[in-house]
Design brief:
This protein is about 10% helix and about 50% strand. It has three domains: about 120 residues, Immunoglobulin-like, CATH 2.60.40.1230; about 100 residues, Conserved domain protein (Immunoglobulin-like), CATH 2.60.40.1640; about 100 residues. The chain is globular, with a radius of gyration of 22 Å. Strands 1, 3, 4, 5, 6, 7, 8 and 9 form an eight-stranded antiparallel β-sheet that branches. Strands 2-16-17-12-11-10 form a six-stranded antiparallel β-sheet, with no helix packed on it. By secondary structure, it is mostly beta strands.
Length: about 425
């Protein structure tokens, strides 16, 4: 049901002509500002490295979602649900959580100097917590960015935070009086705390403030569903083992380990997805943490969750994987001579330059490539360089983008500098279908 209509809508979307004038705010809010500020900031614990460490600017002009009659009625009677659905409409797992009444309304606010922050609601499971929030201002704001976000347990129970996604900053040429987004916390041990405190430090034009909000989670946290897989596949000579799958209400975590004798470094399982017996699909997380490295040969891949579906059969399906030869996993540059000393085959990077503390490349690609390239950065002595800001912008559809990272005190960093790849437009292909249940 609805497949024909959805295909017609997709075809309409693929051929729609969008006037450039209508993109002014989007461009201002995205590419123009991403370079100096970064789109999404994150906190990393220990040396756990997310494959989604950088933010990708994405502007969507048309999205269709299925709304069951019960779901449509549900969101119509709860004030503010429309903006929450708009935030998660591309994540079927979170949508199913709301449809199955797993969303929890919070409604806690604090106002300072004409700015009010409200925690609208939450979705929590053992693995993560999503807090939906709204900033409201008495005057129009052109810039507003979350500089620091902290979550604290108030009931004495351990809160073992691994990563934090801080939401998108507000950039608007015309100015806005309201801005909604979500904080996402992922935990390294199961969430048990129910009484919590959120601290948010924000900055904007002539604005610097910190908000503190206390709130309680009252819904029972659903237990994960675990599946042992222990299945090894071989794609273009590369052996890959799928060890297990943990399915939470917010996401599915797929444990993958590569054979150390592989000749290629596996970067990203680009189209890995869950598929049931009817062909319904749950893809990778589209806006948030898509994977985490345990080691160079082992990772956890995050997919949209089918937790609130109970299919008779469920499979992992994949067709293409980003991979490069192991001796090409680092892009090496000389920031003094402005030279690219080493990069993978294809020569996609060129025109190295330094602007302030930003290390910038031109990135050439024939087809749109919405993945940031770099993760771990080291100096000429092998010492890791901490970079909190990354950016990517330009017109990918024209085969050109600008990509870069902020390197503190770049002029005094020992050369050469190495940037480890977390994504690259190089693929191996296969046709694998792994049974989960």
């Amino acid at each position: 049901m609805y497949e024909k209509e959805e295909e017609q809508l997709k075809n309409l979307y693929d051929n729609i002509q969008v006037p450039l004038d209508s993109l002014d705010d989007a461009i201002f809010a995205g590419f123009h500002k991403a370079k100096s500020e970064g789109k999404r900031k994150s906190r990393r614990k220990k040396w756990l490295v997310s494959l989604a460490v950088a933010a990708i600017i994405f502007v969507g002009f048309f999205t269709s979602i299925r709304l069951s009659p019960a779901f449509a009625n549900y969101i119509s009677v709860i004030p503010g649900m429309e903006k929450i659905v708009d935030l998660i409409r591309n994540d079927k797992g979170k949508m199913l959580a709301i449809e199955n009444n797993y969303y929890e309304k919070i409604g806690v606010s604090q106002e300072k100097n004409g700015i009010k922050l409200t925690i609208d609601g939450a979705i929590a499971d053992e693995d993560g917590l999503v807090l939906f929030y709204t900033f409201e201002s008495k005057e129009k704001l052109k810039e507003l960015q979350n500089e620091k976000v902290r979550l604290k347990s108030l009931d004495g129970k351990k809160l073992d935070i691994g990563t934090i996604s801080m939401g998108h900053p507000l950039y608007s040429e015309k100015g806005e009086t309201s801005h909604s987004d979500m904080f996402e916390f992922n935990f390294e041990s199961p969430l048990a705390a129910k009484k919590l405190e959120l601290k948010v430090s924000v900055e904007g034009t002539n604005l610097k403030e910190e908000f503190t909000l206390k709130f309680n989670l009252t819904k029972e946290i659903q237990k994960k569903k675990s599946y042992a897989l222990n299945k090894t596949v071989k794609i273009e000579g590369q052996k890959i083992s799928f060890l297990g799958a943990d399915v939470y209400p917010l996401r599915a975590a797929i444990h993958v380990k590569m054979d150390p004798n592989n000749t290629k470094r596996i970067l990203s399982f680009e189209d890995l997805r869950l598929v049931d017996e009817n062909g319904e699909t749950w893809n990778k997380i589209s806006n948030g943490w898509v994977a985490s490295h345990i080691s160079p040969e082992e990772m956890i891949i995050y997919l949209q969750s089918n937790y609130f579906r109970e299919p008779k059969k469920l499979y992992l399906v994949l067709n293409k994987i980003q991979a490069v030869d192991k001796d090409e996993v680092n892009v090496v540059v000389d920031t003094k001579k402005l030279q690219i000393l080493k990069q993978p085959k294809g020569g996609h990077l060129s025109d190295l330059r330094v602007e302030g503390n930003d290390l910038i490349f031109n990135f050439h690609i024939e087809k749109e490539f919405n993945s940031f390239l770099f993760t771990r950065i080291t100096d000429g002595n092998g010492k890791q360089i901490e970079s909190n800001t990354s950016f990517m912008g330009g017109r990918m559809e024209k085969g050109y983008a600008e990509i870069g990272v902020n390197i503190p005190d770049i002029k005094n960093q020992p050369n050469p500098i190495s940037l480890e790849l977390t994504a690259y437009p190089s693929w191996i292909k296969g046709n694998e279908k792994i049974k989960i249940k």
